[in-house]
Amino acid sequence: MIRATSTSEQSLLKTGFCALCRSRCGARFEVSGGRLVAAYPEPSHPTGSALCTKGRAAPEIVADPERILTPLRRTKPKGSEDAGWEPIGWDEALDDIAGRLGAIRAQSGAEAVAFGVTTPSGTPMSDSIDWVERFIRGFGSPNTIYGTELCNWHKDFAHAFTTGSGILYPDYRNTETILLWGFNPSAVWLDQATQIAAAKARGARIIAVDPRAAGYARGADHWLKLRPGSDLPLAMGLLRQLIERRGYDEVFVRRWTNAALLVRADSGAFLRAEDIGETGRTGAYVAWNGAPVFYDAGRRSFDADAAGLLLRGRFVVAGIECRPAFDHLCEAVQAYSPEHVARMTGVAPEAQNKAAELLSASRSVAYYCWTGVGQHRHATQTDRAIALLVALKGRHDAPGGNVAFTKVPTNPANGAELLTPEFTSRAIGYGERPIGPAAMGWVRALDVYRAILDAVPYKVRGLVSFGANFAVSQAGTDLAVDALEKLEFHVHCDRLMTPTAQFADYILPANTPWEREALRVGFEVSQEAESLVQLRQAVVPSAGESRSDTDIVFALATRLGMADAFFGGDVDAARNWQLAPAGLNVAQLRAAPEGISLPQRQRHRKYAEETEGGYCGFATDTGLIEVYSDLLRRHGQPPVPRIVGDIPGPDRDFPLLLTTAKSPYYCHSQYRSIPSLRKRAPQPQVRLHPDAAALYDLEHGDTVRLCTEAGEVRMQLACDRSLDPGTAVADYGFWQANSKLRLPGYDPFSNKGANFNRLISLSEADPVSGALQHRSTRCAVRPLEEGAQAWRGFRPARVIEHERIAEDCMRVGFAVEGRDNLPDYAPGQHIVLRIAAPEGGVPVTRCYSLVGSARDKSRNSYIITVRRVAAPTGRSDLSPGRASTLIHDHLHLGSKVELQAPKGRFTLPLEPSRPIVMVAGGIGITPFLCYLETLASSGSPARVHLVYANRNGDSHAYRDRLRAFGKLLKGFSMVSLYDAPAPSDRQGPDFDRIGRIELADLFPDDLGATPEVYHCGPPPMMRAVEAMLEKAGHPEELIHSETFGAPLPGQSAKLPEGPFTVEFRRSGKTLTWSRGAGTLLDFAEKAGLEMASGCRAGQCESCAVRIIQGKTQPISDEFPANPELCLTCSTVPASDLVLDG
């Protein structure tokens, strides 16, 4: 599709899909002048109903100036301050890399080379993963550092201990009840979030299990707010209640689970036919209905009607004491009464009972769980318990449960046929965890570090990484540094220099997903989606010399003797082979960039389909869903879910339980350098309940030390009323600086950095998978002495200056009691002022920018300027601004108030790298006045330009002082605008022009480089400036704004009652909202309006709508207030409202 742009150029829209996460959302990409300029959802695609902020940041990711664009080779020893990177040609680099890898393989075996691969579920590695795995396995190495023990393994492989497969896809379209356990689709799988919204709208009920009020937990019918790491006892308690309430499908349980199979009391093994003298039935399992009933696992069938099989009791069969597998499960869950579970988890008995009642009564339950379950020491047993909780409902692969869609047939490319027992038995960690990830050749970074350093079980000499930043994304950071510095040979493929890449000998530049083709067969979320085959086209050419991971492994494979397996290096030939069973080829797919649908027939309950002599059954030892896993028993693990060891208990030194979660704005440790994303989550935070923060004498915004037994880091404290007072939630993945936003990076190898994984102990791990306790570690949050704020909270202060400087503008100075010398601040920062209400009641609290120089060694006061806020013209029924009225009319010299120390993120650079343009309206001049005073005091040569708009001379604050900066700062210029000058105002001496701000005012000819633009003023002015800059194509990351208003109500604050009228202008409808109508999105949809939406959690921003008139209020203090834009999924009206929707 081609469309005209605002210039003479035409823009081209290219169809494809986003590769940044598991959702793989259908998208359209706009290209203009050979550049990617925008990304949009593609509604015709089965996953294209929305596109999140990461997906929309595609142009910035492609244009990221920090990208590596040519192969680099180290020329100085590891450990040197400067690696001496030199550019090198691709052929020379690949020839040398292949030669050295081949030499290590010949001398020490292929296992002496380990590989690192980033997750295909949360990064664009999904484009290349099959061919990268084929390369690794073809090379002969059983050692791939995947991090899967922390990500996919439990839901995809531990799950198979129960059902014989990974977790199937939830049938949200048909289910009655949705169970989300440790899974926030709004942040990690947008299309699931969209499907859940549709299910909820038609009446499906939601149970969310999460320590945080994240995503659907906030609006769930039942939110079970458990303590981090206590998932297993909660699942056991719900299992007990499901069984006691007879909420399971007894027919299904008898016939299609191994619940009725007898287990020997003496050995814990299943009773077999030969054990009781039935040698003609050797290998058959035994059940009991008053007499032995035999089950043939090969045929998946009983020799009698399963309806009469007994599930409980003790029986003696041929002298052998036995019990049914189900009886073992009942015994295991018996101790988990609601009261006992409440003590272990923090979930009240009543909340447990209501959730259990819903689960029991529901005819169908669809569920999903992910990393929230998988990052604990009991992860495997927890997955078993949750899988059984749902499996007992009998809706496996059935409408309304979790279903297996029929896939388009292809030739698998990942080399799984090479995973023979001999091959995987050489994997590092296989000896300790033989049924864990090592059985697939996936190893822990921690174990590879030890193999590098200590040659246990053998020496690892080489490492080839594809985007894996495990020095930051996994635990054992100090061990990683030691190992990577001592590693003999290291190759790293990535977009940019990461903390892991900096140790490499070669860095190969990987391109972005918008610069390469990628084949996707099936999109997972429905039968329609699974039937779609799409070859995503390259949207723009690869920058520099960057290449795809696919191209890199094909080139290496042909140099390492794998040319046949890689089709002579011909990627098209390889894909044609892959597609052959489907009857497709790449030429057909290139001609249809929207993809080709090959409709497949969906079949339910495939386990019950007849085969020759039997039934399909399940891919487990018994061919049934395994209530009792003999596989686990044989490997020394509990065969039914049980807690082995302790759930973390109270600790005086580390009183809080620490967890973490994926940010919706980043791909794990990537993209902090992207301005539009970093603006949304600018710095690493640890979140606490306000009561917990107060207990440790901490406040929202403080920089704190986050400590565990393993280490400590530094983060900003954020208070969150939704958390349990014993829970801390910290961000992970921060290391990158953001030069465009002037936000710092964080040393991942230092206690003064923010690397969450420095906090994780290496001693406690899940015995099957090796997962560490990333989401259930004991911690403490402590004050930071160095660089702490001058004081915490409010301190008494008195007014020492109170002077009118312009019409309705008051300059007010404050001295802080007990402080003769006050700390400096950054230009643009503000103080928080609290004033007692003269009539009593709740004090008034507001933020005000500081004026005066930000640098003053003898500072003894803080100064602000406040304009009186009158009632709106023609609205005498409305009150004037309460705070400004108090400051103007009630404060006087000596008045007592309270202040917080200076803070704020709207700061201007004292040593700018590019010109600075400031746009002020009225009293919005205050942060810029502070900036100019500070520059003047240092004699700065910076090029700064001010555009200042006022009504007339009476409202023109600091006119004489601003004019003086023309002499004090040689790089200063100013445009002064009046839109309604008074008769006494003189154009020229007093102001420059009559009218509103125009684009030409912002950019004088002598600016040179593209400037940073800062603006502060009334919302209409700020909206006009934003629109003007957007139309001019000014880079978003170079635009900064500041607004102040009344404090955001906390989560516990009462939402407005209404009624308010809401006009949806584009839709031509005006409706009346009241509190019971819910969010603006819910309200609009119930009224039949079609509104854009995605995550329903205020994170993807697909639902953003411009506010034309009126005010809104976020439903939680987690969401920032914005006077110009509202996220309809997380916002309600706070007045009569006009929306551009």
TrEMBL record:
CDD domains on file: fer2, flavohem_like_fad_nad_binding, MopB_CT_Acetylene-hydratase
InterPro entries: 2Fe-2S_ferredoxin-like_sf (IPR036010), 2Fe-2S_ferredoxin-type (IPR001041), Asp_de-COase-like_dom_sf (IPR009010), Beta-grasp_dom_sf (IPR012675), Cbr1-like_FAD-bd_dom (IPR008333), FAD-bd_FR_type (IPR017927), FNR_nucleotide-bd (IPR039261), MopB_CT_Acetylene-hydratase (IPR037949)
Protein's UniProt keywords contain Iron-sulfur: yes
Positions of the FAD-binding FR-type domain: 792-909
Alphabetized Gene3D superfamilies for the sequence: 2.40.40.20, 3.10.20.30, 3.40.50.740, ADC-like domains, Dimethylsulfoxide Reductase, domain 2, Nucleotide-binding domain of ferredoxin-NADP reductase (FNR) module, Translation factors
Pfam short name (any one): Molydop_binding
Annotated keywords: Iron, Iron-sulfur, Metal-binding
Ranges for domain 2Fe-2S ferredoxin-type: 1060-1141
Leader sequence segment: none
GO MF: acetylene hydratase activity; iron-sulfur cluster binding; metal ion binding; molybdopterin cofactor binding; oxidoreductase activity
SUPFAM superfamilies in the cross-refs: 2Fe-2S ferredoxin-like, ADC-like, Ferredoxin reductase-like, C-terminal NADP-linked domain, Formate dehydrogenase/DMSO reductase, domains 1-3, Riboflavin synthase domain-like
Domain of life: Bacteria
Location of the 4Fe-4S Mo/W bis-MGD-type domain: 11-66
Keyword Cell membrane attributed: no
Xref: PROSITE patterns: 2FE2S_FER_2, 4FE4S_MOW_BIS_MGD, FAD_FR
Family recorded in the similarity comment: Belongs to the prokaryotic molybdopterin-containing oxidoreductase family.
Name the UniProt record assigns to this protein: Molybdopterin oxidoreductase
Native source species: Nitratireductor indicus C115
Lineage: Bacteria, Pseudomonadati, Pseudomonadota, Alphaproteobacteria, Hyphomicrobiales
